Amino acid sequence: MKKHKNEAQLFKLALQVGSQFAVNRGYKNFDQGISPKDKVECIYRLLVKDKLITPLPEDKENGPGMKHRLIVWITKQLPADHELLK
């Protein structure tokens, strides 16, 4: 997996945007009382279901893999001149 320069910030942004996407789709706000691991999995599965990201192979479907897919997804959503992509 290719590391991004601002991976931590991109991941945080992906969780924020993904959480808002889930709320817009009718899910309850799950920011409170849910572990980050569960939040990543929920957002990942929602984006896969909506065909916004390609799913990981079942044998590689783990926390770091899902996290990486969310980071790749958010980098494609940002404009090319965004400060986190520099």
Q: Give the integer mean of the pLDDT values.
A: 89
**Low-confidence residue ranges:** none
Helix and strand run: HHH
Terminal residue distance: 19 Å
CATH class: Mainly Alpha
Which fold name fills CATH's third level, the topology?
A: Four Helix Bundle (Hemerythrin (Met), subunit A)
- The domain count comes to 1
Specify the overall morphology.
Answer: globular
Provide the gyration radius in Å: 13 Å
Multimer state: single chain
Biggest sheet, in brief? none
How many H/I helical runs? Answer: 3
Beta content comes to under 5%
State the secondary-structure class.
mainly alpha
CATH architecture: Up-down Bundle
Record field, number of beta strands: 0
By CATH, the superfamily comes out as Uncharacterised protein PF16691 family
The proportion of residues forming helix, as a percent range, comes to 40-55%
Structure explained in plain terms:
The longest helix is centred in the N-terminal third of the chain and has 18 residues, at 7-24. Helix 1 packs across helix 3 (63-77). This protein has three helices and no strands. The chain is an all-alpha fold and 86 residues long. It has one domain: Uncharacterised protein PF16691 family (Four Helix Bundle (Hemerythrin (Met), subunit A)), CATH 1.20.120.1930. The chain is globular.
